[in-house]
Design a protein that fits this description.
The complex is a heterodimer of chains A (241) and B (277).
Chain A: E1 23-27, E2 35-41, E3 44-55, E4 68-75, H1 90-103, E5 115-125, H2 130-144, E6 154-161, E7 164-167, H3 171-176, E8 179-186, E9 191-201, H4 203-234
Parallel strand pairs in A: 4-5
Antiparallel strand pairs in A: 1-2, 2-3, 3-5, 6-7, 6-8, 8-9
Helix pairs in contact in A: 1-2, 2-4
Chain B: H1 8-23, E1 39-43, E2 51-57, E3 60-71, E4 82-89, H2 104-119, E5 129-131, E6 135-147, H3 152-165, E7 168-174, E8 180-188, E9 196-203, E10 206-209, H4 213-218, E11 221-227, E12 233-239, E13 244-245, H5 246-276
Parallel strand pairs in B: 4-6
Antiparallel strand pairs in B: 1-2, 2-3, 3-6, 5-6, 7-8, 9-10, 9-11, 11-12
Helix pairs in contact in B: 2-3
The chains are: A alpha+beta (241), B alpha+beta (277).
Chain lengths: 241, 277
C-alpha cells in the first residue's frame, strides 16, 4: 500500500488529518434555473440547478399534500480518470437517492402541494467526496431558488487512512484508505440527514470520525451562508456579473 | 416508492397509533423494541448453484444463489477476484411490486448488502486469482426477494452470507501450458468471518430493530450498520427522508453491535443445522 500519511502527519495533498480541502461556493451561476450553484471542494467541481416548484410530469407522481423532490446526480464522462459512460450507473442511482433523502428533511415541501422540485447535479470533475460537495451545493441552490427551508444541509466525509481518522478524503484516500463515512447534517437543528459508511471503523474511530465530520459541516455551513449573503446582500451594486 | 402502497390519511392515523404504542414499548406483533422476528435458514436448496440459501425473517422471505465463474479482474485490482451482488424484488413478492429492471430501492439494497460483505473482507478475494491481471474467479450473488414484510436489508444480507458460507467450487489451477484447468477437488470459498447487518427504524423518537412492512410504512428514518466478528462497524447506510439526532446515531451503533453478536449465533446455528442433515 502507498504511504498516505507521511512521518510529519501530512497527507498526500499536504493537508493535516483534520483539514478540509479549499472550498469555493458560487450562487446563481445558471440563468435558466430557478436556483443554481457551483462548488469546488478540492478538485471536485460540481454545478447544480434547481427547477421548481413546477407542474409534475408524469402527473401520477404528484402528491395532494406536498411537493415531490427529485434529484439526479450525474457524472460527466470526462469527470474521472477512466471515461465514465454517460448513462446512469448503479452507483449514481444510489447516490441520487441518498442525496434526495439528505435534502428532503430541510425542505418545507408541504408549502407546495401537487408540484415537483427537481435538483440536477452535474459532476464536472470528481475527486472523492463528490456526493458531499453535491449536497452542500444543492442546499445552496435550493435556497437560491427561494424554496422554504427549515435549515441548511451541509455535508462532509470523514474516514480512516493509514490507520488514522481523517477528514474530507480525496479520491486516492477514498480508494486506498480503510474507511469513508459521508455525513450530512442540518447544522442548526443538529440532525443527521445522510450517513453512509464504507469500510471498517472501531466504535472509538467511528465516534471520532463522526465528531470530526460534524465540526467540518459547521465550517462548510458558514461558507454556504457567506455565498448566499454575497449574492443577495454583498455585491448588489455591481449588478449581474 | 415500489412495493409498499401508501395512503396519506391512513398513514398518518397508523403513525399516530404506532407512536402511541411504541411509547409504551409495545409493537403491533407483541415483540419488544429490540426483538427480531424468528429467523430460519435453509441452505443448499439449489443444486445447480455453487451456494444457496432461503432466509425467512418473519414473513419476509428471500433466496440467494451464488454462481462462481471465471472472468477478468478490474484493471485497478489485478490481484483480486470479483464480487458482484444483485437483488431483484420479484413481482410475486407483493401486490405492489412490479416487474422491470431494479429500481432505486433495489439498487440501494444490493449496494448496501454488497458493502457489508466487501468491506468486512468476508471473502478473501486475493485467494481467487488464477493469473494476476488476466484470470480471476467472479463470485456472483443474486438475491431474489420472494415475499416482502419489511427489513429486506437484513434478510437479503443473511441470505447472502449463508449462501457464501455454504458455497462449494471446483479447484481451478493453471497447467504448464498456461491453460486454466478444473480439478475434481471441491473447495469452499475462502472466508474470514461473518459480518452481520442490523437494520433499525426510527418511528417518532423510538428506535426499533427488524421493522415489518407496516412499521416501515410509517417510519421516519431507517439506518443499517454491518458489524464484523471483532465488533467493528464495516458498512452503514441511513435511508428514508427523515433524520437522526447525534445521540440516535450513537445509540444505533451500540444496538447494532449488541444485536449482531446474538444474530450471528442464530445464523451459525441455522447454517450448522442444515449441514448436519
Amino acid at each position: 500500500m502507498k504511504e498516505l500519511i507521511n512521518e510529519k502527519g501530512l497527507r498526500i495533498d499536504g493537508r493535516k488529518v483534520d483539514e478540509l480541502r479549499p472550498l469555493r461556493i458560487e450562487v446563481g451561476v445558471l440563468k435558466n434555473a430557478d436556483g443554481s450553484s457551483y462548488i469546488e471542494m478540492g478538485k471536485n467541481k460540481i454545478v447544480v440547478a434547481v427547477y421548481g416548484p413546477k407542474e409534475v410530469h408524469p402527473k401520477h407522481q404528484a402528491l395532494p399534500d406536498r411537493s415531490i423532490l427529485r434529484c439526479r446526480y450525474h457524472m460527466a464522462p470526462f469527470s474521472v480518470d477512466v471515461r465514465k459512460p454517460p448513462q446512469p450507473s448503479r452507483r449514481e442511482i444510489e447516490i441520487s437517492k441518498v442525496i434526495r433523502e439528505a435534502l428532503e428533511p430541510a425542505l418545507i415541501l408541504e408549502e407546495y402541494p401537487r408540484t415537483a422540485i427537481d435538483v440536477y447535479l452535474e459532476v464536472l470533475q470528481a475527486d472523492g467526496g463528490s456526493r458531499c460537495a453535491g449536497i452542500t451545493a444543492s442546499a445552496v441552490a435550493l435556497a437560491d431558488a427561494g424554496i422554504s427551508m427549515r435549515d441548511m444541509v451541509a455535508a462532509c466525509a470523514a474516514g480512516k487512512v493509514s490507520g488514522q481518522v481523517v477528514l474530507d478524503l480525496n479520491d486516492v484516500e477514498d480508494k486506498e484508505g480503510e474507511a469513508d463515512m459521508p455525513l450530512a447534517i442540518m447544522p442548526n437543528l443538529n440532525q443527521v440527514t445522510l450517513l453512509q459508511l464504507d469500510g471498517k471503523l472501531t466504535s472509538e474511530e467511528f465516534e471520532r470520525a463522526f465528531e470530526m465530520a460534524v465540526k467540518a459541516c459547521r465550517v462548510i455551513y458558514e461558507a454556504q451562508r457567506k455565498a448566499l449573503i454575497d449574492k443577495y446582500f454583498g455585491k448588489a451594486e455591481v449588478g449581474e456579473e | 416508492m415500489s412495493a409498499v402502497k401508501k395512503s396519506i390519511v391512513v398513514e398518518q392515523l397508523r403513525k399516530t397509533q404506532m407512536i402511541e404504542l411504541l411509547s409504551k414499548e409495545k409493537r403491533l406483533d407483541n415483540r419488544g423494541l429490540m426483538d427480531f422476528r424468528p429467523i430460519t435458514i435453509e441452505t443448499g436448496i439449489i443444486e445447480k448453484a455453487n451456494g444457496s440459501a432461503r432466509v425467512q425473517v418473519g414473513n419476509t422471505q428471500v433466496i440467494a444463489g451464488v454462481k462462481i465463474e471465471l472472468g477478468e479482474p478490474f484493471p485497478d485490482t489485478p490481484d483480486k477476484g470479483l464480487l458482484v451482488v444483485n437483488t431483484e424484488v420479484l413481482p410475486l413478492a407483493s401486490a405492489y411490486a412490479e416487474p422491470g429492471p431494479p429500481d432505486e430501492d433495489a439498487i440501494e439494497l444490493a449496494r448496501v448488502v454488497d458493502r457489508g460483505v466487501r468491506e468486512s473482507y468476508m471473502i478473501d478475494l486475493s485467494k481467487l486469482v488464477l493469473i494476476p491481471g488476466r484470470k480471476v474467479c467472479v463470485v456472483f450473488i443474486d438475491v431474489n426477494v420472494l415475499n416482502i414484510d419489511g427489513n429486506l436489508f437484513d434478510a437479503s444480507s443473511y441470505a447472502t452470507i449463508a449462501s457464501i458460507i455454504t458455497s462449494k467450487m471446483p479447484k481451478f489451477y493453471v497447467d504448464e501450458n498456461g491453460q486454466i484447468r478444473q480439478s475434481e477437488e471441491i473447495t469452499p470459498l475462502p472466508i474470514n468471518g461473518i459480518p452481520i447487518s442490523i437494520t433499525m427504524a426510527r418511528i417518532g423518537e423510538t428506535l426499533i430493530v427488524d421493522p415489518t412492512s407496516e412499521e416501515e410504512a410509517v417510519m421516519d428514518a431507517r439506518v443499517t450498520f454491518v458489524v464484523d466478528e471483532d465488533g467493528n462497524l464495516c458498512a452503514g447506510q441511513k435511508g428514508q427522508p427523515g433524520t437522526l439526532s447525534f445521540d440516535q446515531v450513537k445509540l444505533a451503533t451500540e444496538i447494532a453491535r449488541t444485536k449482531a453478536k446474538e444474530i450471528r449465533e442464530i445464523i451459525k446455528k441455522e447454517v450448522m443445522k442444515n449441514a448436519k442433515g
